[in-house]
């Protein structure tokens, strides 16, 4: 029987005790792993051990897939109607609301994002997302198709079966609900692998799912490393569809494994190098604040982060003056401090990766206008960083850094900025700042990206689809579009009176 971790919080923003089960969640029970091994969970604010979770293995994954298939064949899938699925999802949302502060505290503890951002953004959005898909559960339907009066032809959108879902460490709770929401709403059985860096909110959510009364096996969770459990999930022939959020490099590996095994359906939400475009007629104060939010939100650990900031040459100097000052005033520190905007990076590995890019920028001749150094004496804190005097060929311009680091470049006109903005292998998101709606929309339509914000950044809603062009992924999450990822369309043709 796996242990339960109890953490006592005594912070300015949250005081209380939280119990988190540490095992795998398979077939309605928390269980130990096949190998009896564990994974350390580290606090990114100080680099110290929080607890150890049970490590899953490919053997455990086999058990979870079998449980998911059994549930799909007997108690879930088409055996539970849409109205009942909606009630269960709404019950889960109710439980999330009752435990909202606890969920935010867990995110701040093992991810490092600030409690205030986690509470007002991550948790609230996640609750709305579950309720949104609860609303869809009894509205997944096909259509009748006219062929002739001698036939009745209609389509059914049936749950695809057992699905595997691999979520990242940057938005553990949000990415979990983005995936389980449409999957459970359509009647699919789920096997989820959370990131080994930030598994605690997913484990807490598994307990809430159990409390909500979902049938055993309809949702399963297997902790583990990407190279073992993640790889086994991509290769598993009992999984009909896999969803992954993470790096483009790993996305390629998952797509390859899916193709080589059973040609499972794949959706990928991958990397980005999003442009923020500031025209000379923009509201400069607002553009500065939104551009900063676009890159520094969630410590820059955001796939749609606006890490390439392009400013019209006429206002470049004034923008840089205000943007530099704004960046200097962002407070970095304890995620439970209500005055802090930016907490630590998620891990030593990610800290080292970001600092490596900063070093690369300096070696390539770019200028650090602000930041570029460690913040504090312990943990994985990095100062918000601005690079200027950069060239398009530099790594810091072309590659996803996934940290609080941006580059600021000039542009001349609309044709110039469209060419520069689209000069990337990615196409996840972009922001355009202009008071001229015609110019803003014309530019937005020319950017090769799945989401374009006008006079805003990083604004996401459960009902609005999200996904990328080019190497930023395949398919869409959120909105009605996400339902298509988890259903198979069946055409039924009934002969009424055609004789041979």
Overall description:
The chain is α/β, with parallel strands linked by helices and about 500 residues long. The chain has 14 helices and 23 strands. Strands 15-16-17-14-13-19-20 form a 7-stranded mixed sheet, sandwiched between helices. A 6-stranded mixed sheet has the order 10-9-8-11-12-22, sandwiched between helices. Helix 2 packs antiparallel against helix 5, helix 2 crosses helix 6 and helix 3 (about 100-110) packs across helix 4. The longest helix is centred in the first third of the chain and has 22 residues, at about 115-135. The protein is globular, with a radius of gyration of 23 Å. The model has no long low-confidence stretch (mean pLDDT about 95).
Q: Describe the global form.
A: globular
Radius of gyration: 23 Å
Q: pLDDT average, as an integer?
A: 97
**Helix content percent band:** 25-40%
What is the CA–CA distance across the termini? 64 Å
Number of helices: 14
Structural class: alpha/beta
Give the uncertain stretches in residue-range form. none
Number of E strands: 23
Portion of residues in beta strands equals 15-25%
Task: Give the neighbour order of strands across the main sheet.
Answer: 15-16-17-14-13-19-20
Q: What oligomerization state is this entry in? A: single chain
Main β-sheet description: 7 strands, mixed
Provide the fold topology.
Layout: E1 4-10, E2 15-21, E3 24-26, E4 29-31, E5 38-43, E6 48-54, H1 58-74, H2 82-98, H3 100-110, H4 115-136, E7 151-159, E8 162-166, H5 172-186, E9 189-193, H6 200-212, E10 219-221, H7 226-235, E11 241-245, H8 248-260, E12 265-269, E13 275-278, H9 284-296, E14 308-312, H10 316-328, H11 348-363, E15 367-370, E16 385-388, H12 395-398, E17 405-411, H13 414-421, E18 426-427, E19 429-433, H14 437-446, E20 451-454, E21 469-470, E22 473-474, E23 487-495
Parallel strand pairs: 8-9, 8-11, 9-10, 11-12, 13-14, 13-19, 14-17, 16-17, 19-20
Antiparallel strand pairs: 1-2, 3-4, 5-6, 7-23, 12-22, 15-16, 18-21
Helix pairs in contact: 2-4, 2-5, 2-6, 3-4, 4-5, 7-8, 9-10
């Amino acid at each position: 029987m796996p242990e339960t971790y109890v953490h006592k919080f005594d912070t300015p923003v949250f005081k209380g005790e939280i119990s988190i089960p540490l095992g795998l969640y398979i077939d309605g029970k928390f269980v130990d792993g096949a190998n009896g091994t564990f994974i350390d969970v580290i606090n990114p604010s100080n680099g110290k051990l929080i607890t150890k979770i049970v490590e899953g293995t490919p053997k455990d994954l086999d058990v979870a897939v079998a449980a998911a298939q059994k549930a799909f064949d007997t108690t879930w899938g088409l055996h539970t109607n849409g109205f009942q699925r909606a009630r269960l999802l709404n019950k889960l949302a109710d439980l999330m609301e009752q435990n909202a502060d606890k969920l935010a505290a867990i995110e701040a503890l093992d991810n490092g994002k600030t409690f205030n951002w986690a509470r007002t953004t991550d948790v609230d959005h996640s609750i709305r997302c579950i309720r949104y898909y609860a609303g869809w559960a009894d509205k997944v339907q096909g259509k009748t198709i006219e062929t002739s009066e001698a036939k009745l032809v209609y389509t059914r959108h049936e749950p695809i079966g057992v699905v595997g879902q691999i979520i990242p460490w940057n938005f553990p709770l949000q990415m979990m609900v983005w995936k389980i929401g449409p999957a459970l709403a359509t009647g699919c059985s789920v096997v989820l692998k959370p990131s080994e860096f930030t598994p605690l909110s997913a484990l807490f959510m598994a307990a809430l799912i159990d409390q909500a009364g979902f049938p055993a096996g309809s949702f399963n969770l297997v902790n583990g490393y990407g190279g073992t459990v993640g790889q086994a999930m991509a290769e598993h022939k009992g999984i009909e569809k896999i969803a992954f959020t993470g790096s483009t490099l790993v996305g390629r590996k998952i797509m390859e494994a899916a193709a080589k095994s059973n040609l499972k359906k794949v959706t990928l939400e991958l990397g980005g190098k999003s442009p923020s475009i500031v025209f000379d007629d923009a509201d400069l104060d607002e553009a500065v604040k939104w551009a900063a939010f676009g890159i520094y939100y969630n410590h820059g650990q955001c796939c749609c982060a606006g890490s390439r900031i392009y400013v019209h040459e006429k206002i470049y100097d004034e923008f840089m003056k205000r943007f530099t000052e704004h960046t200097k005033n962002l407070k970095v520190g304890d995620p439970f401090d209500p005055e802090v905007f930016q907490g630590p990076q998620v891990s030593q590995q990610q800290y080292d990766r970001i600092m490596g890019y900063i070093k690369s920028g300096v070696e390539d001749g770019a200028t650090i206008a602000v930041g570029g150094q460690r913040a504090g004496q312990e943990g994985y804190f990095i100062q918000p960083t601005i690079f200027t005097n950069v060239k398009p060929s530099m790594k810091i311009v072309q590659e996803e850094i996934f940290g609080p680091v941006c580059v600021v470049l000039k542009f001349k006109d609309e044709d110039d900025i469209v060419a520069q903005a689209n000069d990337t292998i990615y196409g996840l998101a972009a922001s355009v700042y202009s008071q001229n709606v015609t110019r803003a929309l014309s530019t937005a339509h020319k950017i090769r990206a799945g989401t374009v914000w006008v006079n805003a950044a990083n604004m996401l809603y459960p009902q609005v689809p999200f996904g990328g062009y080019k190497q930023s992924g395949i398919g869409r999450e959120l909105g009605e579009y996400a339902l298509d990822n988890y259903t198979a369309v069946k055409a039924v043709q009934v002969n009424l009176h055609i004789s041979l």
